[in-house]
From TrEMBL:
Protein name, UniProt field: TPR_2 domain-containing protein
Species of the source: Thanatephorus cucumeris (strain AG1-IA)
Domain of life from the UniProt record: Eukaryota
Length: 286
């Protein structure tokens, strides 16, 4: 009877934790993520350590701690998140269908801690985890473009830290694969073009090859074309494309690049003003 009651309590706590987490993601109320963590820990305490649900519970709890870290910037939450994801992965056989997903969660947590503390060891662990996830994910899997994209972010971080050309090449390769695998109607397509445009722009700055600058402009142009009016990134994408036209004008001296540079900067300014006014109006509504 006691075991049955504990099982019911564990199930209830799991459900309540997931519910509060969903509410937090939707509404952003800190009280919800606090309750999600409370219920997640309680469910884990009520579950026998050898139970097959434990890795899933640890994965969820790791996500809750990660979300609270993003809100409060408390390093202790990041440590707990990484610990949960490590334990979940350690309890998951390599042939388990969730192994790659849990490995990816650990890699992302190391990325977040790297961004917070700047320790290269975390970045190395993040790249190792993400690269392995990419290798384990079969062709055609809907998550594969995202894993290529997030791996590209980590290569970009390491390139900025160490300046190794090999990381820049891997950054471009990851962004290229992410874009190639993204369907034409996918909402992430503009961002994928923008990311690849950025990485080509960085390689142009490093090597000075005009072909990279042209590719950067092509992808930034496509990203801008796919970005709807009113999007918060619209102004930045105008400005970013304008900067690339400015670079090419300084390199080649072609008047049309100067015209496009001015046009992009003007559109960027206009969109900043529109977005600021629009947002201000929304904040004043009762």
């Amino acid at each position: 009877m006691t075991a049955t009651m504990e099982a019911l309590g564990e199930h209830q706590d799991v459900c309540l934790g997931e519910l509060h987490h969903e509410q937090f993601l939707h509404l952003g109320n800190l009280d919800d993520i606090e309750k999600a963590i409370e219920y997640g820990n309680r469910a884990l305490d009520l579950t026998p350590s050898e139970h097959p649900r434990v890795p899933t519970q640890l994965t969820c709890l790791g996500a809750y701690y990660n979300d609270r870290f993003r809100q409060l910037d408390n390093p202790e939450d990041m440590e707990k998140s990484i610990d949960c994801h490590k334990r979940a992965l350690g309890l998951t056989p390599e042939d388990h269908p969730e192994f790659a997903y849990r490995l990816g969660n650990l890699g992302i947590s190391h990325s977040v801690r790297f961004r917070h503390l700047g320790q290269l060891e975390d970045l190395e662990k993040s790249i190792d985890c993400k690269a392995r996830v990419v290798a384990l994910t079969p062709d055609g899997h809907p998550d594969l473009p995202n894993w290529h994209a997030t791996l590209g972010v980590s290569y970009a971080d390491r390139y900025r830290c160490l300046g190794e050309l090999d990381d820049l090449e891997k950054w471009i390769e990851s962004d290229s694969r992410a874009l190639a695998l993204t369907p034409d109607d996918h909402p992430d397509l503009p961002e994928r073009h923008a990311n690849l445009g950025m990485s080509y722009g960085v390689r142009y700055q490093r090597l000075g090859e005009l072909g990279d600058l042209n590719k950067s402009i092509d992808h930034k142009t496509r990203a801008l074309e796919l970005t709807p009016n009113g999007h918060p990134d619209l102004s930045y994408r105008h400005a970013d494309l304008g900067a690339s036209y400015g670079t090419r004008y300084q390199r080649l001296g072609q008047p049309e690049d100067l015209d496009k540079w001015v046009e992009c900067d003007s559109c960027a300014l206009a969109n900043v003003m529109w977005y600021s006014i629009s947002t201000f109006g929304e904040t004043r509504r009762p």
